[in-house]
Amino acid sequence: MNQSDQANNIDARVVQGFGEECSKFHHANQDTPELRQLFQSYFSIFPWDKLPLNAEGFDLGCGTGRWAYFVSQQVGRLHCIDASSAALDVARQNLSELKNCDFHLASVEAIPLADNSSDFGYSLGVLHHVPDTQQGLAECVRKLKPGAPFLIYLYYAFDNRPWWFRLIWRTSDLSRRLICNLPFAIKSPLCDLIAAIVYWPLARASKIL
After folding, report:
1. Could you give the count of Cα atoms lying within 13 Å of 206 in the half-sphere of its Cβ?
2. Would you say 66 and 86 are in contact if contact means Cβ atoms under 8 Å apart?
3. pLDDT along the chain (209 residues), means of 10
4. 3-state per-residue secondary structure call for the chain
5. Taking the C-alpha atoms of 56, 62, 67 and 71 in order, what is their torsion angle to the nearest 10 degrees?
6. pTM score, two decimals?
7. Are 26 and 96 in contact (CB under 8 A)?
8. Which of 40, 101, 132, 197 has the most beta carbons within 10 angstroms of its beta carbon?
9. Strands 120-124 and 150-153, bridge-based pairing
């Protein structure tokens, strides 16, 4: 396990928050229909058939290892990288039965892989959380062989959404900004309450409709 001495392109509060989140929502049961469906939706455009035999690549911001669980079964070696030791501990436990995963405690600016060495890479929902997203992208690309695929998911500005959608999002984002600064002991049950009285009823109503 490698740890970076550099820490310029990293938000310590975000890392701590995700570590606490991964410890609570640890996805110990990896192969559920819901997770498999989400995996397939994210990776539907990934060129699996273009990878070399026993391809070696990386998962930048692996979290609990929920995507690494599926990817590792289709490649030769997978490097699971995360800046949170708590998240990496969960990933190591969840993927303990898979022998082709290596775990690295490192930030995006200090990915412990040689430049031009990886056959593929992916980073889902991570790089918009670092202070310099563009630099984070560049660091990931440096580790890839020429022409190697890199799958990425980032937040965007909702340019293709109507005004009312953007208004709802801005309202929810204001609440998120307030809640995220609370101590975890308060933030966690508050989020559970919001999930129970807002998101769960909306999800059930949507399913019925």
Report:
1. 6
2. no
3. 55 84 78 90 96 97 95 97 94 94 95 97 94 95 97 90 92 89 90 92 92
4. CCCCCCCCCCCHHHHHHHHHHHHHCCCCCCCCHHHHHHHHHHCCCCCHHHCCCCCEEEEECCCCCHHHHHHHHHCCEEEEEECCHHHHHHHHHHCCCCCCEEEEECCHHHCCCCCCCECEEEEECCHHHCCCHHHHHHHHHHCECCCCCEEEECCCCCCCCCHHHHHHHHHHHHHHHHHCCCCHHHHHHHHHHHHHHHHHHHHHHHHHC
5. 10
6. 0.83
7. no
8. 101
9. parallel
Return the closest-CA partner of residue 16 out of 189, 187, 199.
187
Nearest 5°: CA angle at 158, between 177 and 47?
A: 110
Alpha-carbon span 103 to 1, nearest angstrom:
6
Q: Which two tokens stand for residue 88?
A: 């990496």
With beta carbons less than 8 A apart as the criterion, state whether 23 and 138 touch.
Answer: no
The partner residues of 58 in beta bridges, in order of sequence, read: 79, 121
